[in-house]
Amino acid sequence: MLALPPVAPPNWWPLHTRLGRDHYIRVDTCDYSVHPRAIGRQITVRADTEEVVATTRAGETVAHHSRCWARHQTITDPEHAAAAEMLRGQAIRQRASHARARGLAGLAPDDLGVEVEQRQLGSYDRIFTLIEGGAAKEDT
């Protein structure tokens, strides 16, 4: 293995990307959490030998982690995890309120006008030739 250069290159691996819904970025083989308020926004990720930093186009820092050199690790900031949980709860409550507003909350499939054919279980055995009678005979 070669030694590192005497002076570290500034900001190795600059990456410009849009942050996905899972709010993690991958640097080398490790995943680093990013604050979920940046989901869907363009971010710039800068990684060097010591740290990984993600910033928005406005210059706001949305992630700052020490660089992990182990392979296939997931590094999560507890603040990012708590914010993601809060936003997830808000989204669930919002969907439920929209469903209540449309009058769909708590309705069974039959109440929605969906008709589903129901067969005797034995007919599936005959269809797949598991019992005598084969696929030619089927109860309806």
Describe what is shown at a glance.
Helix content is 22%, strand content 23%. It is α+β, with helices and mostly antiparallel strands and 140 residues long.
Total number of strands: 7
Principal-axes geometry comes out as: elongated
Total helix count? 2
Q: Structural class, from secondary structure content?
A: alpha+beta
- Quick one: biggest sheet? 4 strands, antiparallel
Distance between the termini: 71 Å
What is the helix content? Answer: 10-25%
Order of helices and strands: EEEEEEEHH
Strand content: 15-25%
How much is the average pLDDT? 83
Tags for this entry?
single chain; four-stranded antiparallel sheet; 2 helices
Structure, described:
By secondary structure, the protein is an alpha+beta fold. It has a domain at 15-101. 22% of the residues lie in helices and 23% in strands. The chain is built from two helices and seven strands, in the order βββββββαα. It has helices at residues 78-101, 121-127; strands at residues 15-18, 24-27, 30-33, 42-47, 51-56, 61-66, 74-75. The strands form two sheets. A four-stranded antiparallel sheet has the order 1-4-5-6, with no helix packed on it. A three-stranded mixed sheet has the order 2-3-7, with no helix packed on it. It is elongated and about 80 Å long. The mean pLDDT is 83.
What's the layout of helices and strands?
Blueprint: E1 15-18, E2 24-27, E3 30-33, E4 42-47, E5 51-56, E6 61-66, E7 74-75, H1 78-101, H2 121-127
